[in-house]
Amino acid sequence: MKFSASTLLLSAQAAAAALNNGTNPSEVPYYGLSPPVYPAPVGNGTSDRSWAKAYKKAKALTAQFTLEEKMNVTNGFEGLCVGNTGAVPRFGIPSLCFADAPDGVRGQEFVSAFPAGLHLAATFNKDLMYKYGKALGEEYYGKGIHVALGPSAGPMGRVMRGGRNWEGLSPDPSLAAVAMGAITRGIQDSGVIATAKHWLLNEQEARRRPSVDESTPERRVTDEAISSNADDRTIHELYAFPFMNALKEGAGSVMCSYQRANHSYACQNSKLMNGILKTQLGFEGFVVSDWRGQRSGVASANAGLDVVMPDHGFWGEKLVEAVNNGSVSEERMTDMATRVLATWYYLEQENNFPETTYRSYSTVGDPVNVQADHSDLIREIGAAGTVLVKNVNKTLPLKDVKMVSVYGYDATVPQSPWQNPNRYGGGYEVNFGWNTFNGTLVTGGGSGISTPPYVVSPFHAISDRIAKNKGTIRWDFYSEAPGPHYVNTEACLVFINGYASESFDRVSLTDEFSDNLVINVASMCPNTIVTMHHTGARTVDAWIDHPNVTAVIYGGLPGQESGNSLADVLFGDVNPTGKLPFTIAKKEEDYGELLNSTNSKDFFPEANFTEGLYIDYRYFDKKNITPLYEFGFGLSYTTFGFSNLETAVKADVNMDEFPDPEIDIIQGGHPELWDVVATVKAHVENTGDVDGAEIAQLYIGVPGDDTPARQLRGFERVGPLVPGQNHRAVFELTRRDLSTWDVEAQQWRFRRGTYKVYVGSSSRKLPLEGTITIE
Ligand code: NOJ
Predict the structure, then answer these.
(1) What are phi and psi for residue 389, nearest 5 degrees?
(2) From CA 709, how far away is CA 297, in angstroms rounded?
(3) Mind listing the pLDDT tens digit for each residue in 60-98?
(4) Active-site residue set
(5) pLDDT class for 33, splitting at 50, 70, 90?
(6) First CA to last CA across the chain, in angstroms?
(7) Which of 191, 347, 362, 388 is the most exposed place for a label (fewest CB within 10 A)?
(8) Which residues belong to the signal peptide in this entry (predicted)?
(9) DSSP characters for 274-323?
(10) Residues 6 or more apart from 467 whose CB is under 8 A from it?
């Protein structure tokens, strides 16, 4: 079947319409199709003066490069780091060092373990998001790493059991977008190139890569990777949306993902790379393949891939040959090299960049200590992303307690020597399983893990508090049914966790041992306080209604200061402000088709994103399913009231339906997308009896019935407020916030009409309602 540009457009419209009237969009031709977009746009630095300056220098160099030298800077080579480009000694261009992970420099000593992305998202705190990126960037910089392989907004968390959701930020595009922008800016303000990953639709681990028979000379593919099939509007409004903010903040690198997207491998998908990323979003930097994610030579080059990792993949000398025989234009190859060098200049890495002391997987004896005082920030973010969801009769904070008992292996540090006497505890070893008899979970598994220099366990931090208060602490870390000896202490603190990792998806959101432990303790102890460390949503239906379960905390993946962060909340030094960055269903089945990744035995497996825009809370709203704890929910030790909603539309900006076509696209998209077009204000008052801050949340209902009923479009931390005090939250709405992606016009477009405005403390507790009218 052949598609012309106009059939594509019509089909795209049909796909969008199909989504709205309930037809299965997978039956519509455009759905699952990646229309060809060629040639690859040539980077030119027109986004701003810094890019222009960087491009001028880069172009002057690449004009003198031989083809082999261009090949060098665009290919992976053996070296110190997880990825290394080739050097060009003739011009003093060094090999660039690429290293993981989004929550800390992985596999090294004297580095910090930051909270995971999902934990950061739970803070709903823009200031902390920036500081996180800044501190992380400083650590990369100190180790001489040019390119940080993060932040991640893919997976977003479409599939609740997805193995890598914790590395990303949130299934809500606005929350993820704000975090992506802030982290990117932070990392790059430290002089390190940030890599927004994984572009795009990388929502599950199952069959994310093809199976290759390495014993055959042609490396025969025995199974292709999953194809994530999504319609154009969903791609723009949901999955690409967070990446836009990273680009707006100058992201120098984007990593294309392993799987197929609309049937074309992401690292050779011209629609995604040449089309959306480099044309619509004006990307000036370079696209790097995920590690061994390149599936072709000529096709990937022409589709917009700029750097292959970790080795030559299908390029190397073959790329030079392809240019010599005309399969890839020399202009394309020059552009690839120019993009790499321009990004290097953009970050000013030519000036005194530290020597690379990073060593791939070897951890002994690296003298460079980059931890600085980041532990304070880590502790603060750890507490700020801790979410309190149940607190009966002010069980928490624990005030002047003298005796507590602690249960569950998640309370203590991992017992690695128990598991394997040849292994040390801590460090890289934290990646080795978190089952029974392991320890507290501070990060997940796979390439996205941090490497803690030390771990403050919950037990350690709680012991410290009890010791200071001249109290007594008792514990049983490993029993599933602890004996009754100490259950009449003032509080029974139960710790459970849920592990997940790159390369496989979860099989359950719960585990029997943990649920049994909670029930067993609660059956004897009238004051059972449960803390979960988890890599994503964790359902709690087995025990949440137990009358003896008096307080429940979603403790996320807090990084090295885990216990301190938690104790700060438990003992009331920090009044919690954390909010759930995902929906907790009453039972797993309530997530419906979005519970599991797609498992298929087909040679060409398919994951059909037929739910379109409706993932997480948007799905629950659409299906009218009441969650247990909704997106955005989290308790404080005080209470808040909301009043005085005011909305205003700006008078001094372009309010035409489409952004001005005369204005050029810059990195991040059309500049007018970021214009503030409306403001919303509301008063937040501390109506309780202790000091506290609240995360005020703004949700928008776009006119028309083809869009989620409510979408988060703003969040502001208000406070701390003393009891009785009130403060105004001011939300600024950009053109993009109030637009939908018009598939036909291939533009963001205002919907004329009345937008609903909701302000409150979660996606379902929205006491203030108003409107904004765009005429
Ligand atoms: C594969 C992962 O998908 C990616 O996120 C990571 O950066 C690379 N491996 C390098 O370790």
Answers:
(1) -115, -20
(2) 44
(3) 999 999 999 999 999 999 999 999 999 999 999 999 999
(4) 290
(5) confident
(6) 42
(7) 362
(8) 1-18
(9) IIIIIIIT---SEEEE-TT----SHHHHHHT--BB-SS-TT-THHHHHHH
(10) none
Pocket probe mutation, ligand 1, options 105, 204, 205, 291, max atoms within 8 Å of Cβ: 291
What is the atom index within ligand 1 of the atom nearest the CA of 197? 5
Predicted local confidence at residue 8, as pLDDT: 41
What band does 487 get if pLDDT is binned at 50, 70 and 90? confident
pLDDT tens per residue, range 342-371? 999 999 999 999 999 988 755 556 679 999
When pLDDT is cut at 50, 70 and 90, the band that residue 29 belongs to is very low
Q: What is the pLDDT of residue 13?
A: 46
Q: Whose CA is nearest to atom 4 of ligand 1?
A: 290
**Which three-class secondary structure state does DSSP give residue 229?**
strand
What average pLDDT score do residues 599-614 get?
Answer: 95
CA–CA gap between residue 274 and residue 282 (Å, rounded) = 10
Report the SS3 class of residue 360: coil
What's the CA gap between 655 and 499, in Å, rounded?
48
Tokens in use for 337?
């090299």
Q: Locate 294 and state its tokens.
A: 């390149």
H or E stretch covering 114: none
The rounded distance, in Å, linking the Cα atoms of 603 and 211 is 10
Which residues surround ligand 1 with Cβ inside 6 Å? 82, 100, 149, 197, 290-291, 447
Per DSSP, helices labelled H in 328-372 are: 330-346
Give the DSSP H/E element, type plus range, for residue 550. Answer: strand 549-554
Token pair, residue 163, equals: 């193995």
Neighbours of 631 (CB within 10 A): 27
- Is 642 strand, coil or helix? strand
Residue partners of 254: CB distance under 8 A and separation at least 6: 195, 196, 197, 199, 243, 246, 247, 277, 283, 285, 286, 287, 288
From residue 140, give the alpha-carbon distance in Å to each of 111, 121, 148, 164, 290.
9, 21, 7, 22, 19
pLDDT in tens, 298-341: 999 999 999 999 999 999 999 999 999 999 999 999 999 999 99
> How many alpha carbons lie under 13 Å from residue 711 in its C-beta half-sphere?
24
Distance 193 CA to ligand 1 centre (A): 16
Index of the ligand 1 atom closest to the CA of residue 447: 11
Element (H, E) at 218: none
φ, ψ dihedrals at 473, nearest 5°: -125, 140
Residue 54 sits at φ, ψ, to 5 deg, of -65, -45
Alpha carbon of 257 to ligand 1 centroid (Å): 9
Give the pLDDT confidence score for residue 85 in this predicted structure.
Answer: 98
3-state SS, residue 233? helix
Which residue's alpha carbon is nearest to atom 9 within ligand 1?
A: 291
Examine residue 101 and say whether the peptide bond preceding it is cis (omega within 30 degrees of 0). yes
Q: Token pair of 175, please?
A: 């929350």
pLDDT in tens, 227-259: 999 999 999 999 999 999 999 999 999 999 999
CA 99 to ligand 1 center in whole angstroms: 9
